[in-house]
Specification:
Layout (H helix, E strand, L loop, with lengths): L1 E6 L3 H9 L5 E4 L11 E4 L2 E4 L5 E2 L4 H9 L3 E3 L6 E4 L2 E3 L7 H4 L4 H25 L7 H10 L6 H5 L4 H7 L1 H4 L10 H12 L5 E5 L4 H11 L3 E2 L3 E7 L4 E7 L2 E12 L3 H7 L5 H9 L2 E11 L12 E3 L7 E4 L2 H4 L9 E8 H7 L4 H16 L3 H4 E14 L9 H5 L5 E3 L9 H28 L8
Parallel strand pairs: 1-2, 1-13, 2-10, 7-15, 13-19
Antiparallel strand pairs: 3-4, 5-9, 6-9, 7-8, 11-12, 12-13, 14-17, 14-18, 15-16, 16-17
Length: about 450
């Protein structure tokens, strides 16, 4: 019998398995690679990226994982708040001044300023709310975040906006993989806090690309990581959990003391058949939005206007943001080297428009828009481009989401939940919940072993 089976090889599952590496564990991943929605590939000095791309800084659980594994991360050196709209590309300057620098009708400018002031006031409240308190359980902090302005949508909060005002305002919110009428007001405000880097921040990049971390963890775990293992059912016995899965064309099962279930909420609900009914019901109410991303490797030799930016919002385009994945490399250069790496990101409604199209169609649409955003010669400099579709892209906080959290976080089962759907900080939530589930499992295992020792029973008995 295993001590723990970790189901799911994304960031949460890998974090849990890493923390449980001194116990008898196995990690089952249904796919052919680890990382889940973390996916990057190295290309010389650059890397292509299609998924999670920024990580939390000092004092975070992500920082602890990076330090333990020995992976380097650095503050993203480029601007996080560039914008390209109506023929204008802005990289530098104060974000509140953008409404006065981008061409638009006066009615949109006035509406945008009013909405900006309204959101700014709430961002300051949000920043105070999310601040870490000494010794505080991260779950309590997360509940505060969920409960903030959770009774209405972001669209209801800001009201109707003229076309250009909405076009400039909403891309920040839709990065959540939800449109303004779908996401809760507090979560939308949180995205502005994130982009403005007030009160919290996911603003570090991993040297070499995000998959450097996930692959390093998997390599350290060795043959404990089992790929191509599709879990069908997880059921409790009196003192253990049985995980039934299919691998290499054969039905298999493994018994363990505990399971860390680190798969997306719909998958968790489907395989953990005997979880308490209210937990399964809560898992069924978690909502994910889709996104489509693409990675472009370029070969230009001259400096580019966007070299100084990391993120450029792109209203009215097929993607809502361009991410300069070469930014970390640019920060260490004395002379600008040839080539670059660009990522485009299309969430929510933009993704729903693109998903039925072929990869070739998506790349053509993206390239045309990139020529408008980054310069007419961009398409001619592309040497490689690939599309990634994420139909179950990212969980988002909808109105009323906060009410589900106590049920989802309740302990008591031998199946311990982990994953980014349990919070609002994406990569940080994934690592934090993986660590938390691992800590709970390790504590319970330690207690069981002590009790067996007191009774004079074998420590590894089935």
């Amino acid at each position: 019998m295993k001590d723990v089976v970790v189901v799911g090889g994304g960031l949460a599952g890998l974090a849990a398995a890493w923390r449980l590496r001194h116990w008898d564990t196995v990690l089952l991943e249904s796919g052919s690679r680890v990382g889940g929605r973390i996916r990057s590939e190295r290309r010389g000095r650059y890397w292509l990226n299609w998924g999670g791309h920024v990580f939390a800084g000092p004092g975070s659980t992500t920082d602890a994982l990076l330090s333990e594994v020995g992976i380097a991360a650095a503050q993203v050196p480029g601007s996080l708040a560039g914008v390209a709209m109506n023929g204008k590309l802005l990289i530098k300057g104060q974000v509140p001044a953008y409404p006065f620098r981008i061409p638009m009708p006066l009615s949109s400018r006035i509406a945008l300023v009013k909405a900006g002031l309204k959101v700014s006031a709430q961002v300051l409240r949000y920043a105070r709310l999310v601040r870490r308190r000494p010794g505080e359980d991260p779950a309590l902090r997360q509940q505060r975040i969920y409960d903030f302005e959770n009774g209405r949508s972001f669209r209801d909060f800001v009201g109707d906006l003229p076309e250009d005002a909405g076009a400039l305002f909403y891309p920040t919110v839709t990065r959540s993989a939800a449109d303004p009428h779908e996401i809760a007001a507090g979560a939308g405000i949180g995205y502005f806090s994130l982009v403005w880097n007030i009160g919290q921040g996911l603003s570090r990049g991993i040297i070499g690309g995000p998959s450097t971390l996930t692959q390093a963890v998997a390599t350290a775990l060795g043959d404990r990581v089992q790929l191509g293992a599709e879990v069908a059912e997880i059921v409790h016995t009196k003192r253990s959990v049985v995980v039934r899965y299919r691998q290499d064309g054969r039905d298999r099962e493994v018994e363990s003391r505990f399971v860390v279930l680190a798969t997306p909420a719909p998958v968790s609900r489907g395989v953990a058949v005997d979880l308490p009914p209210d937990v399964r019901d809560a898992l069924g109410k978690v909502v994910y939005g889709p996104y489509v991303s693409a990675a472009f490797l370029t070969g230009e030799s001259a400096p580019q206007p966007w070299d100084a930016a990391y993120g450029i919002a792109t209203p009215k385009r097929s993607f809502n943001i361009v991410l300069n994945q070469a930014s970390l490399v640019r920060g260490s250069e004395s002379t600008r080297q040839p080539g670059s790496s660009i990522m485009t990101f299309s969430p929510a409604g933009l993704a729903r428009t693109l998903l039925p199209k072929s990869d070739e169609e998506i790349l053509r649409i993206y390239t045309e828009d990139l020529n408008h955003v980054l310069g007419a010669g961009f398409g001619g400099s592309v040497v490689e481009a690939q599309v990634q579709r994420w139909e179950t892209g990212a969980p988002y906080c909808f109105p009323g989401r906060g009410a589900l959290q106590p049920t989802l976080m309740r302990r008591g089962s031998r199946v311990l939940l982990a994953g980014d759907y349990l919070g609002t900080l994406y990569t940080e939530t994934a690592v934090q919940t993986g660590f938390s589930a691992a800590q709970e499992a390790a504590s319970l295992l330690a207690t069981e072993r002590q009790q067996r020792a007191v009774r004079g029973l074998p420590l590894v008995a089935g």
